[in-house]
Design brief:
Blueprint (H helix, E strand, L loop, with lengths): L14 E12 L2 E12 L3 E5 L6 H8 L7 E6 L8 H5 L2 E4 L11 H11 L4 H14 L15 H11 L7 E5 L7 H16 L3 E5 L3 H7 L2 E6 L2 E6 L1 H8 L3 E6 L7 H8 L5 E4 L4 E5 L2 H10 L6 E6 L2 H9 L6
Parallel strand pairs: 3-7, 3-8, 5-6, 6-7
Antiparallel strand pairs: 1-2, 1-4, 8-9, 10-12, 10-13, 11-12
Helix pairs in contact: 3-4, 8-11
Family: Belongs to the ABC transporter superfamily.
Protein name: ABC transporter ATP-binding protein
Subcellular location: Cell membrane
Length: about 325
């Protein structure tokens, strides 16, 4: 039998994370305001949202390190308020910031961490070598952490979160700060984990990452869930299949005034300071209709609607600190 890097021991389809009317308050501030979530085994599930949306507070509750204020939360069928140690033994956590031990070698970072889970020393060394091969760091086993690139450190942090063969892997912004090549290497490793039955739960600010990795996701805003579905479902429900980005020269008038003239050519028109966004099933047809109306844009671009369009429509374009 092939040995999996994750556990995969329970029946497929099990709901590993179950939340109902889940709330978290800090004094008078309610960070999470009654959310419902179910994550079945083997799914890659994402939390998206602007700063302050409640993502991190939710992830800390799921990780059994922050007790809910009210509501129901079950992780692997257990209540984290009474079984936090048992839950932590069966999950892996990859924090946003790498917290590796700079005084140890790459390999010893994994061996020492494995010992925290009571893994015997010989088995810990074997597990460390297995994981270093998995994250493509086998040739760096004897190096010090300071000698690694940012992408290598991230992969080592992911490897460390897998030492206990977790059934759920929690990833907080897994590729923040990485260059495109390093991001794709991390994505490849996460795809492999999912294929082996590990349930992934992640937060990310990268919309392309969410589209690539997540089977399903929720968009959170101000502590509540604003939308729930697969990336394709969210695009279909909240925007449209295509977007025509149209810019006009200043001599043609303001984009606000021009928006009224093109409103009938799309399902929705959004006005930005420098362009109009026409959301429709056929972006080329929308552009043709604009020209047929006697308008001459200075530039046009037709593209597929994305999760970023959904995100901005649901949470707004205003920067949140």
């Amino acid at each position: 039998m092939t040995e999996h890097l994750g556990s995969g021991s329970a029946v497929a389809g099990d709901v590993l994370i179950h939340a109902r009317d889940l709330r978290k308050s800090f004094g008078s501030f309610e960070a999470v305001r009654g959310i419902d979530v179910d994550v079945p085994r083997g799914q890659a599930f994402g939390f998206l949202g602007p700063n302050g949306a409640g993502k991190s507070s939710t992830m800390r509750m799921v990780a059994a390190v922050s007790p809910p204020t009210s509501g129901t939360l079950r992780i692997l069928g257990m209540d984290p308020s009474t079984h936090s140690s048992a839950i932590k033994a069966r999950i892996g956590v990859c924090p946003q910031e790498d917290t590796l031990d700079l005084e140890l070698t790459v390999r010893d970072n994994l061996v020492v961490y494995a010992r925290y889970f009571g893994i015997p020393r010989r088995a810990a060394r074997e597990r460390a070598d297995e994981l270093l091969d998995f994250v493509q760091l086998g040739d760096k086993a004897g190096a010090m952490v300071d000698d690694l690139s940012g992408g290598m450190k991230r992969r080592l942090t992911i490897a460390r979160s897998l030492v206990n063969r977790p059934e759920i892997l929690l990833l907080d912004e897994p590729t923040t700060g990485l260059d495109p090549q390093a991001r794709h290497v991390v994505w490849d490793r996460l795809f492999r984990l999912k294929a082996e039955g590990v349930t992934l739960v992640l937060t990310t600010h990268y919309m392309d990452e969410a589209e690539q990795l997540c089977d399903r996701l929720v968009v959170m805003d101000k502590g509540r869930i604003a939308a729930d579905g697969s990336p394709a479902e969210l695009v279909r429900e909240h925007v449209a299949r295509e977007v025509a980005e149209i810019r006009f020269a200043a001599a043609d008038g303001s984009h606000v005034d021009l928006a009224e003239r093109v409103a009938g050519f799309a399902e929705r028109v959004e006005v930005l300071p420098d362009r109009l966004l026409l959301y429709s099933a056929d972006g080329e047809r929308a552009v043709a209709d604009v020209h047929a109306a006697g308008l001459t844009p200075s530039t046009t671009l037709v593209r597929r609607a994305s999760l970023e369009d959904v995100f901005l429509r649901l949470t707004g374009r205003t920067l949140v600190d």
